[in-house]
Design brief:
The structure is a single chain. By secondary structure, the protein is mainly α. 76% of the residues lie in helices and 0% in strands. The chain starts with 12 loop residues before the first helix and ends in a 7-residue tail after the last helix.
Amino acid sequence: MSEKPYYGPHEDQATIEIERYFLAGDFVAGVGYGVQVVLWTSCAMYLWRQRHRGRRTIFLLCYITLLLIVETMFCVVQSRTVQELYIENRNYPTGPWQYFLDTQNLAINVIFYATVFVMTFLCDGLMLWRSWTIWTASGRVTAYLVNLFPFIMLVASFVMGTLWTLQSSHPGLSLYSARPHAYGTAYYTISLGTNIILTVLIILRLLHYRRTHLAHLPAAHAQQYLSLATLVVESAALYSVFAVAFLVSYAMNAPINQIWLGFATAAQPISTYLIIYRVAAGTAWTRATMDTHTLTSTHIREGSMPMTAPRKRSSADVQLTTEFSVAALDMESGEEK
């Protein structure tokens, strides 16, 4: 019995592995995009209903729309790249992957790197804004000091990301070439470090608030702040885990980095949508708060209400539990009301 003829590509095994993971990463990015569309729809519907609250709601609506546009461009150019490689130029000398490396200056490839960079910067900016919002409750000077270093890191990641995008889009180079690879590793290291630092700052502030202001409140009310802290941890971990996996595999030049890149580019916007919807809408804590008799730390400090005497929920409580800014939760005397 004769052996089955070989119909595979005439490329080395390493290149074939890269192409396999490249296609797999494209599939992962497509699935992630579908999840993002669902989350964007939910966020947009909520924010549109709450548009009368002011400019901040409109800003968040514009922000998530811009994020979706950038992610849509990313998925479109990635799909077009696959078409260019394996349909339009499948017989390119030395194979489709070499065609990809030789044509990094094409518009679709430049847009690919630019959208990854812009999307990461937008999500990092949101994390910095959240940290600023929460720490402003301790005073603007404190907020400036606490967020100064993360801000410097964000600027540094912007610079490194710009250099990485420019270097990766040169003819004959790609994100796997020596110089772009060095810039890319530095860029993702700074970006990931910024996310981790901001997450820690947010958690520390929330836990400090709970210890100092909720020590005498009912356990059910205190639990909501633990839930909020848990949300922050989970949202950061969703992106951080995949970003670390991509960074390590990318630094090692392992082909599987393409799959982790697909997960990371999808997880970061998904985390952002979850933050905007669950924290902005208050769904992480509103139900339990409004089901119980809400007590504010202001009332406790003023001694206007005994701990053992529940009261009816007033309009002020409803405002406290529906105000979408995290700062409204942290204000000790209702400064934003």
